[in-house]
TrEMBL record:
<dbReference type="InterPro" id="IPR001360">
    <property type="entry name" value="Glyco_hydro_1"/>
</dbReference>
<dbReference type="GO" id="GO:0008706">
    <property type="term" value="F:6-phospho-beta-glucosidase activity"/>
</dbReference>
<comment type="similarity">
    <text>Belongs to the glycosyl hydrolase 1 family.</text>
</comment>
<dbReference type="InterPro" id="IPR033132">
    <property type="entry name" value="GH_1_N_CS"/>
</dbReference>
<dbReference type="InterPro" id="IPR018120">
    <property type="entry name" value="Glyco_hydro_1_AS"/>
</dbReference>
<keyword id="KW-0326">Glycosidase</keyword>
<protein>
    <submittedName>
        <fullName>6-phospho-beta-glucosidase</fullName>
        <ecNumber>3.2.1.86</ecNumber>
    </submittedName>
</protein>
<dbReference type="GO" id="GO:0016052">
    <property type="term" value="P:carbohydrate catabolic process"/>
</dbReference>
<dbReference type="Pfam" id="PF00232">
    <property type="entry name" value="Glyco_hydro_1"/>
</dbReference>
<dbReference type="InterPro" id="IPR017853">
    <property type="entry name" value="GH"/>
</dbReference>
<feature type="active site" description="Nucleophile">
    <location>
        <position position="376"/>
    </location>
</feature>
<keyword id="KW-0378">Hydrolase</keyword>
<dbReference type="GO" id="GO:0005829">
    <property type="term" value="C:cytosol"/>
</dbReference>
Length: 478
């Protein structure tokens, strides 16, 4: 088997990481707007609202909000046939709890989608990509509050109705499973707008995370159901951050630790795809005595709102050793992972493992038998403008080539049904994890540094022509 003739070759971004214009056109502040710039190894700080004197890299980002026309023309030159971005919730509902949408925000995405379609580029839209209205954090506590289901569904319904003839491919919550790492502040805040009381124990954090994730899964299921009514042609997927967790050795305890770790990190996909909670998780809730608000109506909604496809990101694989936790093998993402000595890592410590992508595709395919869509993959690296004024980035091409090769093998040898491939940050943008500009993924360079200085001019890296060739040959010429 080879790649589909209608294979979606694209590029992926998220509104908050490239648009800028954080308070333009009536937009309200989102969770991304109160996060400062971090660095490699230094976490971003979450401030109490937008404070003077802080560096908030998402406020201007790469100013796509004002430059999208020229950018989309460049995307067309690159040869993309799809463009994955998100709709910034706070452009449409600045506070998140309004009844009426902000027309100026709606018009922006009409114009952006028209511009894409004019160039034969199909928009692929994430509804919630680390961009929750900040007001929903301060007034409601984020997704720990059931009210957020209705706010999100209302937002989704408004945009799906508005763009029903312009957008066919949707995803509900970006990397909904990052929050499996509830010990840190980053993922619960970016996924769900969760802040924890000072000194909250791991267990307190964990139960809040499960509650928030449940409300999100219910909201997602509702949106799948409503979306299919708005336009039966809609394809609505979930979005999972897939970092497969290998056993560090073939010691049986390591294998079991890996199995449990995979359950704790990927149960979200089970609920999205199968429409119910897996027994390993209900057994866990029972053992821990978690008293979650999961109603009979919620369960019905989950079973009615199964996703059409599985969108996922793939950057790296993990490895785990059992740390003497027989028989529970309870997983602590912050402490239990170990280095994989068989693979190299990026400057940011992300382990480079192309075969892991083939493994991930097989894992999803065996478990769910649904179409799969690789909606993020890429290599964050420091680029240097050489004397000839260009960026020569063979390291980026090497990474992507190896991953595309692995993905093709999953289709050819393993029969995986693959819809498309959209490499992450194909135009340089603000890193989600660190807030840096320096961690670049793009084929298109953007002149801006970590301090926010630079002309914002765009230029092509060597990888630009390489990806052009890949798309033109439908992946034959790598
Ligand atoms: P950055 C962690 C692990 C895997 C993917 O990440 C992740 C994260 C969060 O940092 O995020 C996704 O920018 C996410 C994008 C993000 C991209 O991967 O930290 O969906 O928003 O930019 C790359 O290098």
């Amino acid at each position: 088997m080879t790649l589909r003739k209608d294979f979606l070759w694209g590029g992926a971004v998220a509104a908050h990481q490239l648009e800028g214009g954080w308070n333009a056109g009536g937009k309200g502040p989102s969770v991304a707007d109160v996060m400062t710039a971090g660095r490699n190894g230094v976490e971003r700080r979450i401030t109490d609202g937008v404070l003077p004197g802080e560096n908030y890299p998402n406020h201007e980002a790469i100013d796509f909000y004002h430059r999208y026309k020229e950018d989309v023309a460049l995307f067309a030159e690159l040869g993309l046939n799809c463009f994955r971005t998100s709709i910034a919730w706070t452009r449409i509902f600045p506070n998140g709890d309004e009844a009426e949408p902000n027309e100026e925000g709606l018009q922006f995405y009409d114009d952006l989608f028209d511009e894409c379609l004019k160039h034969g580029i199909e928009p692929v839209i994430t509804l919630s990509h680390f961009e929750l209205p900040y007001h929903l954090v301060t007034e409601y506590g984020g997704f720990r509050n059931r009210k957020l289901i209705d706010f999100f569904v209302h937002f989704a319904e408004v945009v799906m109705e508005r763009y029903k003839n312009k957008v066919k491919y949707w995803m509900t919550f970006n990397e909904i499973n990052n929050q499996a790492n509830f010990m840190r502040d980053f993922a619960p805040f970016t996924n769900s707008g969760l802040k924890f009381p000072e000194g909250a124990s791991d267990e307190e954090r964990e139960v809040i995370m499960y509650q928030a994730a449940h409300y999100e899964l219910v909201a997602s299921a509702k949106v799948v159901e409503i979306g299919h009514k708005i336009n039966p042609d809609f394809q609505i997927g979930c979005m999972i951050a897939m970092c497969p967790i290998y056993p560090a050795t073939c010691k049986p305890e390591d294998m079991m630790a890996s199995t449990v770790a995979m359950q704790r990190r990927y149960w979200f996909a089970d609920v999205h795809v199968r429409g119910h909670y897996p027994s390993y998780l209900t057994a866990y809730f029972e053992r821990k005595g978690f008293d979650l608000d999961i109603t009979k109506e919620d369960k019905e909604l989950l079973s009615k709102g199964k996703v059409d496809y599985i969108g996922f990101s793939y950057y790296m694989s993990f490895a785990i050793k059992d740390h003497g936790k027989v028989p529970t093998f309870d997983y602590d993402e912050d402490k239990d992972l170990v280095k994989n000595e068989f693979v190299k890592a990026s400057e940011w410590g992300w382990q480079i493992d192309p075969l892991g992508l083939r493994y991930a595709l097989n894992w999803f395919n065996e478990r769910y038998e649904k179409p799969l869509f690789i909606v993020e993959n890429g290599f964050g690296a420091v680029d240097k403008v050489e004397e000839d004024g260009r960026i020569h980035d063979p390291y980026r091409v090497d990474y992507l080539k190896a991953h595309i090769q692995a993905m093709k093998e999953a289709v050819e040898y393993d029969g995986v049904d693959l819809m498309g491939y959209t490499p992450w940050g194909f135009i340089d943008l603000v890193s989600a994890g660190t807030g840096e500009m320096k961690k670049r993924y793009g084929f298109i360079y953007v002149d801006k540094d970590n301090e926010g200085k630079g002309s914002l001019d765009r230029s092509k890296k060597d990888s630009f022509e390489w990806y052009q060739k890949v798309i033109n040959s439908n992946g034959e010429e790598l």
